[in-house]
Amino acid sequence: MVLGEHAVVYGAPALALPVPQLTVTATAGWSPGSPDDPGDASFTTTGSASKPMVSQASDGLRRLTAEFRKTMGVPAGAHLDVIIDCAIPPGRGLGSSAACARAVVFALADLFGREVAPSTAFDLVQTAETVAHGRASGVDAMAVGASAPLLFQAGEARHLPIACDGLFIVADSGTTGRTKEAVELLREDFEHRPEARERFVRRASELAGEATRALAGGRAETLGAGLTEYHELLRAAGLSTDRIDALVEAARTAGALGAKITGGGLGGCVIALTRAGQAEEVTRRLHDAGAVRSWAVPLRGPVDHAR
């Protein structure tokens, strides 16, 4: 997520960035099943996912599979065996659960010989996302199928015109975010302080609008400043951590135009905007400050994107 975490749930616009280096593939087939797995499908995840996340994800994926059968008119049959190879670290605000769900949708489509419309794929991914995160905005479900930065609001998304040069450096703090806890924390605060919710959503909407215009107008410094201010909004709401704040400060000290936490909060990743000439130094400083891995994502418009 570039801008708009949490505020998007309350109707504000959000900017999302796909990370093409991080991929998920899934295959689906038939198996005799197992007495230890009485359901109609089993899921095995390889790659970066940890065992607790695999268990949590499977609840959503089972719901997705049931909805796929219902929506696509597939009768119950033999036990399904789905294998997911996920390169996206879970719980980092990078859309791991949504990307896995999308891969499963198309693996099932291949297995059953069905064509899945984009709107149907989105709805099916949302089925799993709601189980994984509670109240899911839909932005991850859109972004994982995108080929360029998106503006998302109220269930609709469009590609953004881009005239900025630069790179986003995504740095993994090494700590798992806690999206459900962060959502609940903010919700409780807003219930007690409705004026705080109004201020948060209003300023988040303004920053998203400014960022959209900055991308189109080639004003990278304005975009970077908006990232940093949005981080301060999330930090003031109690959704950052000391480690995340240290990474944000390291990126800015190294010359990044702006930096912020990305995703649900209370852990996860930092995203920093930098000129190409500063990217190496920003990346080095992020790792010195505790980042365990990082990815560079160039700013660019839509490209051909495999499903």
UniProtKB/TrEMBL annotation:
InterPro entries: GHMP_kinase_C_dom, GHMP_kinase_C_sf, GHMP_kinase_N_dom, GHMP_knse_ATP-bd_CS, Mev_gal_kin, Ribosomal_Su5_D2-typ_SF, Ribsml_uS5_D2-typ_fold_subgr. One of its GO terms (molecular function) is ATP binding. It comes from the Bacteria. SUPFAM superfamilies: GHMP Kinase, C-terminal domain (SSF55060), Ribosomal protein S5 domain 2-like (SSF54211). Residues 28-56 are annotated as: Disordered. Residues 42-56 have a biased composition (Polar residues). Its EC number is 2.7.1.36. The keyword Oxidoreductase does not apply. Pathway: Isoprenoid biosynthesis; isopentenyl diphosphate biosynthesis via mevalonate pathway; isopentenyl diphosphate from (R)-mevalonate: step 1/3. GO terms for cellular component: cytosol. Pfam families: GHMP_kinases_C, GHMP_kinases_N. Residues 67-143 form the GHMP kinase N-terminal domain. It is found in: Cytoplasm. GO terms for biological process: isopentenyl diphosphate biosynthetic process, mevalonate pathway. Keywords: ATP-binding, Cytoplasm, Kinase, Lipid biosynthesis, Lipid metabolism, Magnesium, Nucleotide-binding, Transferase. Belongs to the GHMP kinase family. Mevalonate kinase subfamily. NCBIfam families: mevalon_kin. PANTHER family: MEVALONATE KINASE. This is mevalonate kinase. It comes from Streptomyces tuirus. The gene is mvk.
